[in-house]
Specification:
single chain; 191 residues; alpha+beta; eight-stranded antiparallel β-sheet; three-stranded antiparallel β-sheet; 5 helices; globular
Length: 191
């Protein structure tokens, strides 16, 4: 019974311990190797990452204890938040892209502003994006963009056409294979 209680405690608190650190990934290799720079203990109020959205600045402030460091968004890969989610910066964009899957195709989600007819932003709506590697350009996840990104993979093009011929959403998740459907199709197109 004691082992069962210990197992339950470990199971409940494992996610908290797993992501007790946030910090910056300086490049894609650091992300791949899970190597954080400017680590911040999420259980402490002594550190934080300020993204400077409201000021539309092209840098991030990282505060560790009493030390504040500014990092230009276009010179770093991204960051891991205290909730364990990882975000990638792209160029000098004031937008972060949440990495939701890293396979043949890297899939991201980012909030895109919806602008009303008066020109004012009314809300932010999540959209899907992709890149072919962790370091390459990020594009909206559309069939046309997927085909452009893999121009020589005709089998992949054909699988996309068959799968999404009835205008199904190209960001569909395949629960059976535990991956996004476009990644499953990409894996099936390699011989």
């Amino acid at each position: 019974m004691k082992s069962l209680k210990l197992f339950f405690i470990q199971l409940v608190f494992a996610p908290i311990v797993l992501f007790a650190q946030s910090g910056m990934y300086m490049n894609a290799t650091d992300y791949t190797n899970n190597k954080l720079s400017y680590e911040i203990n999420c259980d402490s109020s002594a550190g934080k990452i300020k993204l400077n959205h409201f000021l539309a600045k092209n840098y991030v402030d990282v505060i560790c204890g009493n030390k504040k460091t500014q990092l230009k968004k276009d010179s770093i890969f991204g960051y891991r938040a205290c909730d364990g989610k990882t975000y990638r910066f792209f160029k000098n964009n004031d937008q972060e892209f949440l990495i939701v899957e890293n396979r043949t195709i890297v899939i991201y989600i980012a909030d895109v502003p919806v602008v009303s007819s008066t020109g004012k932003t009314t809300q932010l709506v999540p959209h899907y994006f992709f890149s072919t590697t962790l370091s390459s350009e990020i594009y909206p996840l559309t069939l046309i963009n997927l085909k452009k990104a893999f121009p020589g993979n005709i089998k992949f093009h054909d699988l996309l056409d068959v799968e999404f011929n009835d205008l199904k959403n190209s960001s569909a998740y395949d629960a059976v294979h535990k991956m996004y459907r476009v990644n499953y199709l990409a894996s099936q197109s390699v011989n």
